[in-house]
Automatic annotation (TrEMBL):
Entry keywords, A to Z: Hydrolase, Membrane, Transmembrane, Transmembrane helix
Name recorded for this polypeptide: Metal-dependent hydrolase
GO molecular function: hydrolase activity
InterPro entries: YdjM-like (IPR007404)
One Pfam family of this chain: YdjM
UniProt superkingdom: Bacteria
Transmembrane segments: 32-49, 99-116, 122-143, 150-168, 242-263
């Protein structure tokens, strides 16, 4: 799928988690619901770090383009080193390492550890990065063009600062779900994991599939392109994505938000 659809699906997924948490007796404070949705929307773009032409490659200027190039080479190296006889030969690392459940879990866990050990500035850094990505994904028309980069960064930095300050207030969400001393912001890794997995599932619906299960082998393949029957798949950017899935994500997100806030 394309960046906007990935971001919408990520936000909708976290709002759905908010609805489920409320039904299970662990309602999210509204800042957790909002921040989690934005982080998940941003994290749903992050697996495309292995693609030099993806939205994330442009999000932070030369720095993100350089990181994408490194991740692409790393992913390709891992693919070559671990492929089985049934895996196809390829010339790049797109849709390999960063499109797996293991990558999603490691990145989410690393973010949680950084949040609880790095203090306020680590939390603000996590928020800033994902706010930039969320803006790039959800407001893609307004964020296009290099002239808007500085404005996107300023908006993301301001939002991260304000929302980080709100979360730090008692009862506003720093200790949601994890209440023991020293576990503040431990939940920040959850929307990151969810966003990455939602991205992978979205890509699995396209014609190429997605090797979500790696490193678990399937038959003669270690990089098995998981997905539904080919007749049910679509091309990225097609009318199915734009006219069906994106409106559905917006509707589901709205319903999930209303349920999470006990409006329905």
């Amino acid at each position: 799928m394309m960046g906007p659809a990935h971001s919408l699906s990520g936000a909708a997924a976290w709002l759905g988690v908010g609805a489920a948490a409320a039904a299970a007796g662990h309602p999210m404070p509204w800042p957790v619901l909002l921040v989690g949705a934005l982080i998940c929307a941003g994290a749903a773009l992050a697996p495309d770090l292995d693609h030099k032409a993806a939205t994330i490659s442009r999000a932070f200027g030369p720095i993100s383009r350089w990181i994408c190039e490194i991740v692409d080479r790393l992913s390709y190296a891992v693919y070559k080193a671990t492929r089985k006889p049934g895996d196809a030969r390829r010339s790049g690392g797109h849709r390999t390492l960063t499109h797996t459940w293991l990558w999603a879990v490691l990145v989410g866990a690393g973010s949680s550890v950084a949040a609880i050990t790095g203090g306020r500035w680590a939390v603000l850094g996590i928020l800033f990065v994902h706010m930039v990505l969320a803006i790039e994904g959800l407001l893609w028309r307004a964020a296009r063009g290099s002239s808007s980069d500085v404005l996107v960064w300023l908006l993301a930095a301001t939002s991260a600062w304000i929302l980080g300050g709100i979360l730090a207030k008692p009862g506003k969400g720093a200790h949601w779900l994890f209440t023991a001393p020293g576990q503040g912001y431990l939940w920040l890794g959850l929307p990151i994991v969810l966003g990455a997995l939602v991205h992978d599932i979205g890509d699995a619906l396209t014609v190429s599939g997605c090797p979500i299960l790696w490193p678990i082998p399937v038959g003669r393949k270690r990089w098995y392109p998981l997905g539904p029957p080919k007749v049910m798949r679509f091309r990225a950017g097609s009318w199915v994505e734009l006219k069906v899935l994106m409106p559905a994500f917006m509707l589901l997100g709205g319903v999930g938000c209303a349920a999470a806030l006990n409006f329905i």
